[in-house]
Amino acid sequence: MHDRRHRTVRDLRRGNRAAVLWSLYFDRPCSRQDLSAATGLSPASVTNVVRELLAEGIVAEAGSQDSDGGRPRVLLDVRPEYGFVVGADVGETRVRVGLYDLALTEHAKAEYPLDPAEQRVDVVVRAIADGLRAVLADAGVSPTQVLGVGVGVPGIVEQGREALVHGQTYGWDAVPMERLLRAHTDLPLRFENCAKTMGQAELWFGAGRGARNAAVVLIGSGVGAALISGGSMYLGTTSSAGEWGHTTIVAGGRRCRCGSDGCLEAYVGAEAILDRFGAAEASGFGTSGSGTPATGTEEAALATLVATAGSSPAATALLTQTAYYLGIGIANLINLFNPERVILGGWAGLLLGDRLLVAIRESAGRHSLRRPFAAASIELGELGPEAVTLGAATLPLAHFLDGAARRQTS
Amino acid sequence: MHDRRHRTVRDLRRGNRAAVLWSLYFDRPCSRQDLSAATGLSPASVTNVVRELLAEGIVAEAGSQDSDGGRPRVLLDVRPEYGFVVGADVGETRVRVGLYDLALTEHAKAEYPLDPAEQRVDVVVRAIADGLRAVLADAGVSPTQVLGVGVGVPGIVEQGREALVHGQTYGWDAVPMERLLRAHTDLPLRFENCAKTMGQAELWFGAGRGARNAAVVLIGSGVGAALISGGSMYLGTTSSAGEWGHTTIVAGGRRCRCGSDGCLEAYVGAEAILDRFGAAEASGFGTSGSGTPATGTEEAALATLVATAGSSPAATALLTQTAYYLGIGIANLINLFNPERVILGGWAGLLLGDRLLVAIRESAGRHSLRRPFAAASIELGELGPEAVTLGAATLPLAHFLDGAARRQTS
DNA sequence: ACCGTTGTTTTGAGTCTTGAAACAACGAGG
DNA sequence: CCTCGTTGTTTCAAGACTCAAAACAACGGT
């Protein structure tokens, strides 16, 4: 109950410094006055903090802006080249690594294919390490300039002294990812579930900008969600919160690959949609069995399905039904969480949402209570597939803004 | 994003004072050393803060405790008689008001029946005002000794400059409860949904003690939930979070009184259970129609139903099914929230849980993912029907512990 | 050149926490 | 009975920080 732990007066300083940095980062560029207004600090304190940030080279003055009549405001901005962050995305078929500066513009990227049939941890770790080396070499950036590395992994991340990864679908059980990767680099490492990572990207730079309570809903082959409460990711007790895909919406319904039945994922996951279509058509695209096709194939199949929807009544009916179920899943989120925004993302989510957003909204409205529904807007994600890498890069960046991380060289 | 707003160095003091008070309140009695350890403050600062609290009469020394060999620890405790708080519970059939001291021991209570057929706001407000006067007179407590009044209302509370209440079932729409009650008293008022209020009571004093992430699930005639995240109530954007009862668990299922269908409430709410039983038996207890019976009747009917379960196969089957559905609802919470504890409460919840807890756990286990399920314990609430009043009293108390509230006289 | 306006910095005062040292209250052992 | 070691609490001086007010700076208009 109540974790209030502002100890020393020095922590106060750190806190105020963080407040200024966060403010500046998300409202860039802005003047000292703006910062004063945004943080509630006195102009004097802002001057102090900013002086420090200027001296450290983290922010720089960036021109000025006329004020009506008086002294012009000096605009401040984050100096993108102060440092770099690395984001890595461990997907089902490939490992992607990106190098970003402080403004999160990409400076280099690398990609390594994985064998979708078996995801061996050592292969993944080696790919990340290789990617790290590659992007640094590519952009001519020295490791000393890197603030940290963030990794988005499929599965639950148990944050402890060393991050452990539990990947249900990959058969990973308490894999000591951090220790394994530590063998290849001394940089600060952070791990997070890739759905949460992607959610954070949408929250910071996509459709979720400015939201304090939001749900980012991700539909790919499987289904997941990231819950944002009070402006930051909600993790839960063992940081496995957000398993929306295995929420039951049809008691006694279709069998799900998780072993339960009636899960949302068994109706709106890409694999499930194709499965259902296959069962209905008993022919055509998709997989009728349970084998996981390469994502590329799955993606093409679903795209074709969506495209045919105009002409094929069977496809239309299926999609209508999918929107119905998806609306129910979203309505449940709205009733439980009362978010101000629900963002639909993931490759399949974007594909479906493009065509079905109206139907989804309608179904969600019918299945949720009036007031919470009225408070929530349902929108499409704005970020593409690079969102996971970007979101991963966000992890060390957040720590930097909090004032914890510094560059290795002092 | 990030609300960091520790302005002045004085706020720091207030924060540390609050940290000490909360610590002491929930680990009572304890020594200055314990407080130092619990809050992370230096012994010197604890002494300072405690000196202040002693001078104000909020805490008092309460004996001492031998230390092995050295100076004995002086035990500190909250002085219960420093002030009082009032809690009011607006139920479907009655208004209950309780007067509590700082230690939340009851000093007086009052109850006023309501006509269950129509809940007129002015009647409710008058009952609360009468109850307030009555409990104060009864215990011989002057209003100047009262720190505040908390009210638990059925419906969504919109916290603004003045609390507004939206009671779906009562036909209350944006009722300015605070303004209405303000006409009768000058005391600080706080309003909250009664499910959240009850949840807070369980969290502080019942089965939820010490939990940081928990879900308190309430089953009465209707169904609701209170979500606790990071040790405090999660409210959502328009403070209507936790509408678990109207979460869909059977797409296209039974019609619910909210207008949607397949809601959890339509399966496990007391009214719904009796309804289903009536439909199955086409005779016996319960109501076969949709009219809301007086709660007393409903309560008796459900108790009878549960009692017959041993002998009547129909009743047994119905309860088994109810446990199945309830387990699904709980599993959904576990998957989404990853709480460390799920607490089953409400009069019907306790009645059912008493007999069905094992079956409910089993169903929840089958419908949730392994890891989050393993992290969550499912337990019965420990508090009786007075929990709402107690929880309501908790609202002004929390503000007092935060250092905001003082007694009116200085 | 002067004035009003607006943005930023300096200054002096006031608060707060803290580590170290002092102080207090006990049991044990001579 | 006195001393000593131990443990819990308080005092004290130093250091850190924010803030309000005042000073300063940079502009347009007249």
What do you see in this structure?
- The structure is a homodimer of 410-residue chains.
- Chain A is an alpha/beta fold and 410 residues long.
- The first copy, chain A, has 3 domains: 77 residues, Arc Repressor Mutant, subunit A, CATH 1.10.10.10; 130 residues, Nucleotidyltransferase, domain 5 (2-Layer Sandwich); 176 residues, ATPase, nucleotide binding domain (Nucleotidyltransferase, domain 5), CATH 3.30.420.40.
- In chain A, a hairpin with a 2-residue loop joins strand 13 and strand 14.
- In chain A, helix 8 runs antiparallel to helix 10 and helix 9 crosses helix 11.
- The longest helix of chain A is centred in the C-terminal third of the chain and has 25 residues.
- The two termini of chain A are 38 Å apart.
- At the A-B interface, helix 1, strand 13, helix 10 and helix 12 of A face helix 1, strand 13, helix 10 and helix 12 of B.
- The first copy, chain A, binds a DNA duplex (30 and 30 nucleotides) through helix 1 and helix 3.
Query: What value does the average pLDDT of chain A take?
Result: 90
Distance between the termini of chain A: 38 Å
CATH topology of the largest domain in chain A: Nucleotidyltransferase, domain 5
CATH second-level architecture of the largest domain in chain A: 2-Layer Sandwich
Number of strands of chain A: 16
- CATH C-level class of the largest domain in chain A is Alpha Beta
Estimate the helix proportion of chain A, in percent: 40-55%
Compressed to H and E, one letter per element, the order of chain A equals HEHHEEEEEHEEEEHEHEEEHHHHEHHEH
CATH superfamily of the largest domain in chain A: ATPase, nucleotide binding domain
* Gross morphology of chain A: globular
What is the structural class of chain A? alpha/beta
Number of domains of chain A: 3
Strand content of chain A: 15-25%
- As laid out across the biggest beta sheet of chain A, the strand order is 6-5-4-7-11
Radius of gyration of chain A: 23 Å
Q: Largest interface here, residues on each chain? A: A-B, 74 and 74 residues
Oligomer: homodimer
* Poorly predicted regions of chain A: 283-294
* Largest sheet properties of chain A: 5 strands, mixed
